[in-house]
């Protein structure tokens, strides 16, 4: 009774017969001595804004500032939505940052938004206006905040800093990222370091309080750049992990201090290679104490589990990718924009996505250790749930599949899901696929195939 092989990470391979298996909208975990496959969390509406085209978000003292195509809104902790006067032109990604300004003992931060395609704006509780200091170049393409200073990247390689807890810019308060002539695509801050991401290098900076420019470049410059402006995350409030980004070599990397490490697999690399660079974006979030990194594009979404160091695929109905994007932490929860509506979403144990079905798939790798001419009988171990599993199998490496058979998990605590006869094996082995639709939760613990030797028949 050999166990069917299931992969550590979703591994579809390049062509039928190559892959080791897949996880779509589910992920493997190891707890103690046991392994499980669990469903991904659902998405529940936090608030309906009535807008569309999510571009960027920021939490400011419990109020979410949200940029959409054609409008900017604030969302209070009680869900009240207020549309600001003025807009931020375009539909590209928007980065937002706040400073630590205090007026008469009250936090009154300046809020700045920058479009990835160029242009800076200042937001208040009621209005959107152009950046007030002309000494900031109009080509500015990102913003972040470190130690009292707004930091701005410019495509030509300059990195500007504002005055302390202000929007004013000294025309001489800049440095130039010049270890290589690769310009700057993004500035992102984590801890005490600001990273200037270029096309082929990352230049780290520390706040040393000098004037007119307050930062000093570190001696170590990682020799790898970022693919595109929105392809980085890990700077969000409460995120206690590395920065993650899609590098210019189209791999996914983790950045800690001055060191980078590749975390993507060949399948993830192929996914990124098939993506339009401008659509690649990275988000981070935490679910039930476990950190995840989402890499999405026009080719789909892959999610990295930082605990298991494994990848799974995520797909939303009607989206071609995961519908959640632009994650922030606000009011003690992770908040996402919705690609398919103007709603803001939160993670949920309700296994739907903003009311839409959340289906999933587990696919084994090929079991090839059968004798010649063998008929196999499947036994699969699931926890009990009010849901139906659709079972199918392939004998040709996944080129073609059997008709699906339905098996209920309503009595899974009494006997396993089973299929009496999977047909004759071939040199390609046997691949099993389990698919489901519905909101009931369950876990998958593994499957075996009995050997029924027909050589004597």
TrEMBL record:
Domain of life: Bacteria
Chain intervals for the UniProt region annotation (Disordered): 1-20
Identification of the protein by name: Uncharacterized protein
């Amino acid at each position: 009774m050999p166990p069917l092989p299931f992969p550590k990470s979703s591994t579809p391979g390049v062509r039928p017969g190559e892959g080791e298996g897949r996880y779509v909208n589910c992920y493997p975990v190891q707890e103690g001595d046991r392994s499980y496959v669990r469903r991904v969390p659902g998405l529940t509406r936090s608030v309906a804004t009535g807008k569309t085209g999510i571009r960027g978000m920021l939490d400011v003292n419990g109020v979410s500032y949200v940029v959409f195509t054609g409008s900017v809104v604030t969302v209070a902790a009680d869900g009240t939505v207020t549309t600001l006067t003025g807009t931020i032109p375009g539909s590209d990604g928007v980065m937002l940052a706040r400073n630590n300004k205090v007026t008469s003992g009250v936090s009154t931060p300046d809020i700045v938004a920058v479009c990835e395609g160029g242009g800076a704006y200042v937001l208040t509780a009621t209005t959107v206006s152009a950046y007030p200091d002309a000494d900031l170049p109009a080509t500015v393409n990102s913003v972040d905040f470190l130690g009292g200073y707004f930091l701005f990247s410019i495509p030509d390689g300059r990195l500007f800093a504002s005055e302390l807890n202000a929007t004013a810019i000294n025309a001489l308060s800049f440095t130039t990222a010049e270890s290589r002539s690769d310009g700057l695509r993004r500035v992102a801050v984590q801890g005490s370091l600001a990273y200037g991401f270029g096309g082929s290098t990352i230049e780290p900076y520390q706040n040393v309080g000098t004037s007119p420019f307050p930062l000093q470049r570190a001696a170590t410059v990682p020799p790898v750049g970022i693919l595109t402006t929105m392809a980085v995350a890990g700077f969000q409030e409460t995120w206690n992990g590395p920065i993650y980004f899609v590098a210019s070599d189209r791999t996914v990397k983790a950045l800690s201090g001055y060191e980078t490490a590749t975390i993507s697999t060949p399948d993830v690399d192929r996914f990124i290679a098939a993506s339009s660079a401008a659509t690649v974006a990275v988000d981070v979030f935490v679910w039930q104490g476990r950190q995840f990194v989402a890499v999405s594009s026009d080719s789909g979404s892959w999610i990295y589990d930082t605990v298991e160091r494994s990848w799974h695929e995520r797909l939303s109905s009607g989206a071609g990718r995961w519908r959640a994007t632009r994650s922030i932490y606000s009011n003690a929860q992770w908040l996402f924009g919705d690609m398919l509506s103007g709603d803001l979403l939160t993670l949920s144990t309700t296994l739907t996505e903003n009311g839409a079905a959340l289906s999933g798939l587990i696919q084994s790798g090929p079991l090839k250790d059968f004798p010649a001419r063998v008929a196999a009988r499947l036994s699969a171990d699931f926890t009990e749930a009010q849901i139906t599993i659709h079972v199918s199998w392939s004998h040709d490496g996944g080129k073609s599949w059997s008709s699906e058979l339905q098996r209920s998990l309503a009595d899974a605590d009494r006997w396993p899901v089973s299929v009496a006869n999977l047909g004759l094996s071939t040199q390609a082995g046997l691949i099993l696929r389990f698919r489901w639709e519905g909101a009931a939760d369950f876990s998958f613990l593994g499957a075996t195939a009995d050997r029924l030797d027909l050589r004597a028949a």
